[in-house]
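Quick one:
INPUT:
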């Protein structure tokens, strides 16, 4: 989890300098508003499971935007990085060692999200190849 926090923070910092786009869309503003509301809810809660659900929701907001971007412009993401993230989610789930929904929630979410981004990259590349080969 700390690795994800550090890597996401690094991506955020680098995005201010080398960002994908200088133009924000309505979906970006909506995601930012949801993120801020979720962070406020996270701040006021004192329940670990509730906090975990909020963290997953916050991550899902960014993940949804990444999935869209990865499909629309697959060259902006590297499959190898997302496959390594998928592997880390799998290893984290195995490391839990027992069936406990609260402990497995985040690793399973990471597995789902990284698989979705990887699939979006592959489908985006496939779409681009079809567009190039179309008469």
């Amino acid at each position: 989890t700390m690795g994800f926090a550090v890597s996401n923070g690094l991506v955020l910092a680098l995005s201010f300098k080398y960002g994908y786009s200088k133009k924000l869309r309505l979906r970006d503003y909506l995601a930012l508003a949801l993120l801020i509301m979720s962070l406020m809810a996270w701040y006021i809660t004192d329940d670990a499971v509730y906090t975990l659900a909020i963290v997953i929701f916050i991550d899902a907001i960014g993940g949804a935007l990444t999935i869209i971007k990865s499909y629309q412009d697959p060259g902006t993401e590297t499959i190898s990085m997302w496959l390594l993230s998928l592997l880390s989610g799998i290893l984290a789930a195995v490391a839990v060692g027992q069936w406990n929904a609260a402990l497995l929630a985040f690793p399973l979410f990471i597995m789902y999200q990284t698989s979705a981004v990887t699939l979006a990259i592959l489908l985006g590349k496939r779409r681009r190849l079809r567009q190039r080969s179309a008469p």
